Amino acid sequence: MRPALLSVAERKAAQGHIHKIKFDTPFQPRLDALMQTHEWYDWAGYRAPHSLWSEELEYFAIRSQSALFDISPMVKYRIEGPDAEAFCNRLTLRDVTKLKPGRVHYTAWCDDSGHVLDDGTLFRLTETRFRLCCQERHLPWLLDGAFGFNVTICEETEEVSGLALQGPTTCALLKAAGFDGIETLKPFDIRDFAHQDGTVTVSRTGFTGDLGYELFIDTRRALSLWDRLWDAGGPYGLRAIGYAALNTARIEAGLIVANADFITAETALRADRARLPDEIGLDWMVDLKKGPFNGRRAIEAARRDGKARFVLVGLEIEGNVPADQAIVYHRKKREVGLVTAAIWSPTAKRNIALATLERPYGDSILNDLWVEIYALRELQYTRLMKRAKVVPKPFVKLARRTQTPPGDF
């Protein structure tokens, strides 16, 4: 059978699709106008800023004023129908029956072996409608799991755009932008506010450990929402930021990232790379008082038999050289783990890190831990062995994150 011949226009269209490496979010025109560093990275196929003007100053915009970050590439699923609550409760680790309309909670979900497939936020918009936001794409798996439930599941990543507004002046900024009553929103509350001829959904959530909000809107109205915030933001020090600044803030807050601090079950190429919730600090999510959920039997068996092999810990490391991707040793000899994320914390004024360690190290053995850092100095790497100690997370805890109403900074 001869292949069908394409017209010139069809060939050009096909070539354009092949050569388009990254997708643009609806906020791309505003990001392009502000871009000074030309540092972009690939976020789920989207062209996203690593930094826009100054990685260091963008971080301080989070901690001292207001920072705006485009979260549109975050994968979003709409789950709705009479059995939406039952499906979400069967899917995730936490008890969804306790999640009331107008609330959101952080959760995770596992495969049948109890290994974490992803973590994310579950928004309960109404009694029968939820929005699941996460890092990875899971639609085929979600649809398979919905067999027998009266629910409709669809991805709405492109239809719903998102902005994270983070920092101490964000509540005052939103009030100035006409979001009346925003100061009454408690942590993990959701509320709809009028915008143009529609609405914008605002949640008091974020990934920085600071006072902050996330705003979700129909993509057709995305740019007008950006402009509304930008026009009101001048007196409150509003700045657009990239991922580098956000990453510094989330490490200080002790928050983990899929496929950075742990490997998701669907992504892992080796069987020993997948992780149980108890191995990545998500054991507090597992609600054994509720009914069946994916991976329950495996998680219970691992706890009963002591088969959790790893633990994710916070480390404080001597010196000021970040230990990113450093090997962790016990008594400078035995390799016991790996640093997954590390920074010099501008707020805590400490050299901090997240690390995954093999039990019992980091669990019952906490002393005599060391990290091996290779520091580039004058075109030559210098090997540094620095002492590390296990410390509680978060490394930075700010009262304003949960204060209601927030202060007018």
From TrEMBL:
It holds the Pfam family GCV_T_C. This is Aminomethyltransferase family protein. Residues 54-290 form the GCVT N-terminal domain. It comes from the Bacteria. Coiled coil: none annotated. Residues 312-397 form the Aminomethyltransferase C-terminal domain. It comes from Roseibium sediminicola. PANTHER family: AMINOMETHYLTRANSFERASE (PTHR43757), AMINOMETHYLTRANSFERASE, MITOCHONDRIAL (PTHR43757:SF2).
